[in-house]
Amino acid sequence: MRLQEPTETSFGRRSTEFAQSRPDEIDLVIVRRDGSEVGMAWGVLESRANQIARMLEGLGVTQDSVVALALPTCVEHVYASLAAWKLGAVVAPLRHDLPHWEMDRLVGAADPAVLVSDVHAAPGPVVGRQALAATTSLPDHALPDRVATHVSLLPSGGSTGTPKLILHPSRGVVDDNPMAAALSADAGVEERTLVNSPLYHGPGFQFVAPRILEGKRVFVMERFDAALAARVIEEKQITYTLMVPTMLQRIAQLDDVGPANFASLRRLVYGGASIPEWVVDRWLELVPPHVFWFSYGSSEHIGLCMMTGEEWADHRGSTGRPVGMEVSIRDEAGNEVPAGTIGEIHQRPPDGQRTFEYVGAPTPEPTADGYYTIGDLGWVDADGYVYIADRRKDLIITGGANVYPAEVETALSEHPAVGDQVVVGVPDPEWGRRVHAIVEPADPNHPPAVDDLRTWCKARLAAYKVPKTYEVVPKLERTDAGKVNRTRLSATRSDVGFGAS
């Protein structure tokens, strides 16, 4: 009797197949900060993953166990991820440089069978990179085939309040992802992906191992650097990459880049936060409009909006139209508001499917008609295009008026002496909350003057939106993923009065 061929391929089995068919081929390269490269051939990747899997198995990792990885972007992060999937485990990538108290809370929520970290502790077994390196004497042949019930357990984008992780109904199998196909390079073009986000961040983690297991070649930045990223795109003929606004802004401010540097790109996807319009305009000079893709979504995967640069001229400021889901803008009472009115963005996934569960916090229930919200504020135009105002938690109410930090940050970003910017609300006895701007100079040797910044903002913003205080810092406190902790920035500036008017 002939056995029926399996209808799906696990991550572990695909790795084994590639190691057998192309053991010396390198589909994954980590680009170090100095521009040097570390490549991983399939034969080595398979061997090391099998050895580390046997070590994890000896420490108690089984089907559906959680393996938490608190490592920087490095080869060991990839080895350990694939090793966990070979055991049918779920991988929880955690930011490695968190303070111990914050890591302890995340580890408590994840409850991992094993924590992989060089510096952090956990109630259960903890192994560092030195221990991973010591597994080279273990057998390296393939393990029995297993499928991870859940691929990942991702920390939420926020870093304050109750720690929570997001679990998706995703399985550790290689399949045809319709959205990935839509964003892939043109047919007949060898796809080469550049990952700019760290492996602890959702977009970074989700674009590495699954993508190479689909047969794509992936380059991963150890840490984002604008000039180096531009160089890698040109030299490696990158066809696909995803960037957050901070990354796009820093490349746009480079003096020596032009369309020739990005001629290989077939898809450049932006997402993660609001983006200044001038940054989009600059990028539409650097790449053809059909190459630049706008996207808006969340770690919860409750919905997605997209459009290309070809739609930008008629819908400036938009992040696109809903893709395979529905959007409803509602007021605080849950009532839908007219087009052009700012409210809370609600999204309804296809067929009302639940796309996520929280671990460590209650999972919110949908509205009676099946919509979810994560607290973003925005509006839709008459054509159904979505525009993001800000996160509700980031909204600054000053003197009874609403100020959206993203709008103020856009005005600041246009100043030629500003390299990066964040706007937060700080306590104020007169206004309740005061709009406070924190600015990183484009040139540290020539920082912008506070009076100049104030004049600049007054020419571009309504009076109540103009920051009342300004602060010029050598470097903004951003993660490698380009995110800032606004709550922390605000709390540590409760008594400041830099340049107060």
What does this structure look like?
The strands form 7 sheets. A 9-stranded mixed beta sheet has the order 3-2-12-11-13-14-15-16-17. A 4-stranded parallel beta sheet has the order 5-4-6-7. The protein is built from 14 helices and 27 strands. The longest helix has 17 residues, at 42-58. The model is unreliable at 1-5 (pLDDT under 50). Helix 1 packs across helix 3. With 501 residues, it is an alpha/beta fold. The chain starts with 8 loop residues before the first strand and ends in a 10-residue tail after the last helix. The chain has 3 domains: 33-190 and 197-213, ANL, N-terminal domain (Rossmann fold); 288-392, Luciferase, domain 3, CATH 2.30.38; 395-491, ANL, C-terminal domain (GMP Synthetase, Chain A, domain 3, 2-Layer Sandwich). A hairpin with a 2-residue loop joins strand 23 (396-398) and strand 24. Helix content is 25%, strand content 24%.
List the helices and strands and how they pair.
Blueprint: E1 9-10, H1 11-21, E2 26-31, E3 37-41, H2 42-58, E4 66-70, H3 75-86, E5 90-93, H4 100-110, E6 114-117, E7 126-127, H5 129-133, E8 153-155, E9 165-167, E10 173-174, H6 178-183, E11 192-195, H7 202-206, H8 209-212, E12 217-221, H9 226-235, E13 240-243, H10 245-252, E14 267-270, H11 277-286, E15 292-296, E16 305-308, E17 321-322, E18 326-330, E19 343-348, E20 357-359, E21 376-380, E22 386-391, E23 396-398, E24 401-403, H12 405-413, E25 418-428, E26 432-441, H13 450-458, E27 469-472, H14 486-491
Parallel strand pairs: 2-12, 4-5, 4-6, 6-7, 11-12, 11-13, 13-14, 14-15, 26-27
Antiparallel strand pairs: 1-10, 2-3, 8-9, 9-20, 15-16, 16-17, 18-19, 19-21, 21-22, 23-24, 25-26
Helix pairs in contact: 1-2, 1-3, 2-3, 9-10, 10-11
